[in-house]
Amino acid sequence: MNWDVLVVGGGSAGLAAAVSAAGLGAKTCLIERHGFAGGMATAALVHSICGLYHLTDGAPGAYANPGFASHFADRLKECGGASGPVRLGRVEVLFHRPVAFAGLADEFLEKAKNLTIKFHSEMIAASPTLDAVEISCRGVRETLTPRTVIDTTGDATVAALCGAGCEMVEPARLQRPAYVCRLEGIPPSALDDSGRLRIARIIAHGVHSKQLPAAALGATFRAIPEDGGLFATINIEDPDGYDPLDPACLTRLEMVGRKLARALMEYLRGQDDGYSSLRVAAHPVRVGVRESRRLVGRVRVETEDLVSGTLPEDTIALATWPMELREKANAVTLRFPEGNRPCGIPLGALRAHQPETLFAAGRCLSSSHEALASLRVIGTCLATGEAAGIAAALVADGEAEPTAAQIANHRDRLLAHEYC
Ligand SMILES: Cc1cc2nc3c(=O)[nH]c(=O)nc-3n(C[C@H](O)[C@H](O)[C@H](O)COP(=O)(O)OP(=O)(O)OC[C@H]3O[C@@H](n4cnc5c(N)ncnc54)[C@H](O)[C@@H]3O)c2cc1C
Predict the structure, then answer these.
(1) What is the mean pLDDT of residues 206-234?
(2) Is the pLDDT of residue 240 over 90?
(3) What pTM, to 2 d.p., does this model score?
(4) pLDDT of res. 224
(5) Separation CA 370–CA 166 (nearest Å)
(6) Domain coverage including residue 366
(7) Same domain for 410 and 268
(8) Which of 79, 187, 228, 261 is 20 to 30 A from 24 in CA distance terms?
(9) Where among 282, 300, 330 does a domain terminate?
């Protein structure tokens, strides 16, 4: 089957890419291995959207990226699926309910006229020129012939399968994974600032007295205001060596995550009457992976770009989130840009050297390990996904080298028509 644009991976970036490419009239196909879109923002139960707002010294920050990112955030708030912005120290975030994110994603995907969605399908092979891409659903294989392909797999799987350049930082420095689960049985107020501090103290005591494994120290808790969502995020250190591309490691992480969640709930239930009904209400579909393989594109966003707030001429989106490094399960380092300046993400960071028909967006675009610690957040993934969708649609239509100005024009047009 022939397609103008094939989007592989329906996470935040893939959703934005597919809706934008289809909105421009490109015959678009979205492949996603799960039965819903959103990726980490739904399947891994990540429940806050970062990178939506400009950094400020305290005043509310305006949206950093006009277009799909801010439009999706507004729609999510309108349907009661998100609340905020909420200021947390120097940053602002939008808390969301993963279920609402998936529902709204469905609405956008259903409305898109030129879009075919293939859920429960996985891309498994590709020719070096990407003119033949093989997908599989339950053992039934299909070959697709796209003009352009967007890699929004999070793992740069398309790039790896077609032999385009990829890179991944050494395992010891990879951002640590985390297991996020939904909780029930306590009021949201039990997870306010003082409630979370109290739980942290109880867990520290449990670890100190050897009633809980040391890994429990990587757990944090959060209530999503207004809609009652309660979540535990358990950052995990894999003592046998973390590798997000190794099925043995991913299997260990899933099992360790469930085991830790169970142990934590059991322990907390015994510590206080207020926690006596606390339990895991829902496990994630998959463990949360913060960092994996990335495309080596025409341009690489470097750490220094983020620090100094570089604005290249071909900027297609702005990154505003500080570099949030989580190289250890129970420690986080935030590195803010000088003067709160945003960093421009160049179009070249979304496009492969060869094949030229390959684009990447979201957490597998072309960047350094540290720069990705900013670029990987959902708000930025939505914005880079949209730019990749527009660029790929233009290339499929015969425009060999689309410019950032063209992308901005088309983005404004899509926004004016609400991506229909
Ligand atoms: C524990 C954790 C906490 C986080 N906290 C925050 C936070 O608070 N705020 C924030 O903004 N960000 C946060 N992030 C980061 C953010 O969630 C992700 O970086 C972002 O959602 C990535 O979006 P994406 O679209 O690039 O990739 P993903 O969301 O990973 O989507 C990739 C999609 O591609 C699909 N796919 C992969 N390979 C194939 C294939 N071969 N065939 C078909 N489909 C395929 C996957 O099923 C998936 O749906 C967190 C991440 C983690 C793990």
Answers:
(1) 90
(2) no
(3) 0.98
(4) 86
(5) 16
(6) 2-171+291-416
(7) no
(8) 79
(9) 282
